Amino acid sequence: MIDDILKYALRLLSKKDYFESEIRNKLVKKFEDNDGVEEVIKKLKDLKYIDDNRVSEQFIKSQLRKGYGQYLIKKKLMEKGVVISISEIGAYLSEEEDLKRKIAEKLHKYHNDYEKTVAYFYRKGYPYSLIKRLISEVIEDEGYIS
């Protein structure tokens, strides 16, 4: 039975990286042998096939490339069973200037619609206070009409 669990886990991991909690849920759902699943999980962790730190780093970078903010990323990680602090996510964040540039682009795209721009970046997970401050800076720097 353990061989079957291991083969299935390796097949899953050959397609993509999983968080420990994700792979555990998939294995328990398929095999219902908790002891066997835990043994396989331990073996995979020892072999470094499961590494939540590595997968978290990849996930955070991917989400940042998609334009998501740190609060939304933290929420998504928590849904996957990974606890991480905002400061850890912040280590991967691009500079505020990059976000400021994106805000300027959205303001232009939305024809200076302040509320639409705030809503867009808030949905992406950026803190409201940061969005407001950077929009104000963009308006001041570039002379947008608010």
UniProtKB/TrEMBL annotation:
GO biological process terms, semicolon-separated: regulation of DNA repair
Gene3D superfamilies (alphabetical): Winged helix-like DNA-binding domain superfamily/Winged helix DNA-binding domain
Alphabetical UniProt keywords: Cytoplasm
Occurrences of domain RecX first three-helical (ranges): 8-44
Localization in the cell: Cytoplasm
One matching Pfam family: RecX_HTH1
GO cellular component, one term: cytoplasm
Family (UniProt): Belongs to the RecX family.
HAMAP family the record matches: RecX
Function comment: Modulates RecA activity.
PANTHER family per record: REGULATORY PROTEIN RECX FAMILY PROTEIN
Name of protein: Regulatory protein RecX
Lineage: Bacteria, Pseudomonadati, Deferribacterota, Deferribacteres, Deferribacterales
